[in-house]
Specification:
Layout (H helix, E strand, L loop, with lengths): L13 H19 L3 E5 L4 H14 L3 E7 L7 H12 L3 E6 L1 H8 L5 H22 L3 E5 L4 H5 L3 H4 L13 E3 L7 H10 L4 H4 L19 H20 L8 E5 L5 E5 L2 E14 L7 E2 L4 H14 L3 E6 L13
Parallel strand pairs: 1-2, 1-4, 2-3, 4-5, 8-10
Antiparallel strand pairs: 6-8, 7-8, 8-9
The structure holds xanthosine-5'-monophosphate.
The site of xanthosine-5'-monophosphate has 13 residues, from loops.
Length: 324
């Protein structure tokens, strides 16, 4: 196994992060020379830090590809474009693959099939973009040390297996010996926005696993809008970065309700907010009841097609963190 050098100090301060950045820039320049590098940039903290390091090291020899699969949180694609294309002058290709993903997922209710379709189509779309580019020699990857260490049950279904031949480039993995907290310190030092650096974990299949069963566009929109309200309220209440993971789910059933004296038949939104150290077990976050009531009020009034909110009080085990 590829092991972190025992002499490597833990990166806990801006000065240590800067030393790491300087070292990596030199190493990346030595490895890449005048060749071209390709990177799939999701906007998550790991790929964003790799992108920022590569931009500093080799500038426009790097091509970033951001695939919008329609399962991202509200504002995420816009933020990737703003930060990397507008502020860092990166060579960024934005691929709108929303219809392709949602068409491929139409009518598919089985959670494992949904994950497989999303994972495979992502690789296909990325490989198609790679095929349009000439002279790529390297592939940047946001591998971090836990990815190397963990081959247990939590990660096994998360990361798509090997790369297809059309993406068989030499790998560039500048953060592969870092733990998540170190990646964040480096990201902060690189000047990435806090909302990117301190982002909560987000599954590869994105909101797709929170739109339970067969995904429909209207229910997916209810997941995205309710998630945005939840994040905004957690931020306003100083809970960002304090609660480990919090999100909404929209199951594929309806219940009766009443709005302005009229009966409705709409979806519920489920809220899940958990704390954990390693995601193997998790406990439910204890929150202020007034804040919870305010979130329920906002979601039921602002999200289309929703008339009820349920709060998931199940620890892991027995519930997994995600619902699919
Ligand atoms: P579960 O639902 O298994 O989730 O308790 C544990 C943690 O893993 C995240 N998760 C994923 N992360 N790809 C990922 O990169 C995935 O397919 C995936 N599924 C779950 C989940 O959000 C939680 O933090």
């Amino acid at each position: 196994m590829d092991r972190r050098p025992e002499t490597m100090e833990r990166i806990t301060t801006p000065a240590l992060a800067q030393a790491f950045i300087d070292e990596q820039i030199a190493a990346l320049r030595a490895q890449i020379g005048s060749e071209k590098v390709l990177l799939a940039l999701s906007g998550g903290v790991d790929s964003s830090v790799v992108a920022a390091l590569l931009i500093k090291a080799v500038g426009r020899q790097l091509t970033c590809v951001h695939v919008n699969h329609g399962l991202l949180r509200k504002g995420e694609s816009e933020q990737v474009i703003e930060v990397f294309r507008n502020q860092m002058d990166a060579n960024l290709i934005y691929v709108d693959a929303v219809d392709r993903f949602l068409d491929a997922l139409a009518g598919v209710a089985d959670p494992e099939r949904k994950r497989k379709i999303i994972g495979k189509l992502f690789i296909d779309v990325f490989a198609e973009e790679a095929a349009k580019l000439d002279g790529i020699r390297f592939l940047g990857q946001g591998t971090i040390y836990p990815d190397i260490l963990e081959s247990g049950p939590v990660k096994s279904h998360h990361n798509v297996g090997g790369l297809p031949p059309e993406l068989d480039f030499e790998l560039v993995e500048p953060v592969k010996y870092l733990f998540k907290d170190e990646v964040r310190v480096v990201g902060k030092q690189l000047g990435l926005p806090d909302s990117m650096v301190y982002r909560q974990p987000f599954p590869g299949p994105g909101l797709g696993v929170r739109c339970v069963g067969a995904i429909t566009r209207d229910r997916l929109e209810a997941v995205r809008e309710s998630d945005a309200i939840l994040r905004e309220e957690f931020k306003n209440n100083g809970l960002e970065g304090k609660v480990w993971q919090y999100f909404t789910i929209v199951p594929d059933f309806k219940s009766t309700g009443i709005t302005d004296g009229l009966r409705t038949y709409d979806w519920p939104v489920v809220i899940r907010a958990v704390n954990t150290v390693d995601a193997v077990t998790a406990e439910v976050a204890e929150l202020d009841f007034g804040m919870m009531a305010h979130i329920v009020d906002r979601i039921t009034h602002e999200v289309k097609g929703v008339n009820r909110v349920l709060w998931d009080l199940t620890p892991k085990p027995t519930g997994t963190i995600e619902w699919e």
